[in-house]
Design a protein that fits this description.
The chain has about 200 residues and is of the alpha+beta class. The chain has a single domain, classed as 2-Layer Sandwich (Peptide Methionine Sulfoxide Reductase, Chain A). Helices cover about 40% and strands about 20% of the residues. A 6-stranded mixed β-sheet has the order 7-6-1-3-2-8. A two-stranded antiparallel ribbon has the order 4-5. Strand 6, helix 5 and strand 7 form a beta-alpha-beta unit. The longest helix has 19 residues. It is globular and about 35 Å long. The chain starts with a helix and ends in a 6-residue tail after the last helix.
Amino acid sequence: MLGLSALSTAALSNASAAATDETAVFAGGCFWGVDAVFKHVKGVSEAVSGYAGGSAATARYELVSNGDTGHAESVQVRFDPAKVSYQQLLQVFFSVAHDPTQLNRQGPDTGSQYRSAVFYTSAGQQQIAQSTIRQLSAARTFSAPVVTQVVPLQQFYPAEEHHQNYLALHPYRPYIIFNDMPKLEQLRKRFPALYQ
């Protein structure tokens, strides 16, 4: 009986921790690299590749790849705000996960499905994202204007299973080596306190 009680306490503790987690959704090109970056940020408990910006009927890779569904390849990030703030996630997103000055493209990938976007889930997230973009622009952090959209999240649709955790499962694919591994190295160098 004591074992069951301890198990129940542990389950309640885990449920309580999950209840304090928040969700953020970012689009920054191919979701493989964005997913891998956020999986290596302390305080992030889950990163899921998927689609945002379109309807359920078209939330499939073969349709999204055409670039006319309204979706962007996105990553849903679940995080503990006591360990990593939304502002810190935005810093990682803008400086490591992708190039926010590229319109409807990232690296070799082109089309509106690869656009830069912050899909906010609350008014607070909207304000922080817009403020961050204003600060980046005022500081002339980039040599070109930030083109990141800040839009409300209507719905997030997880991508097919073979797209999940792609970098960890395919670390030697040329696309991963050239486009995504450097992002992890930048995360480690620029945000050592957040890297895991």
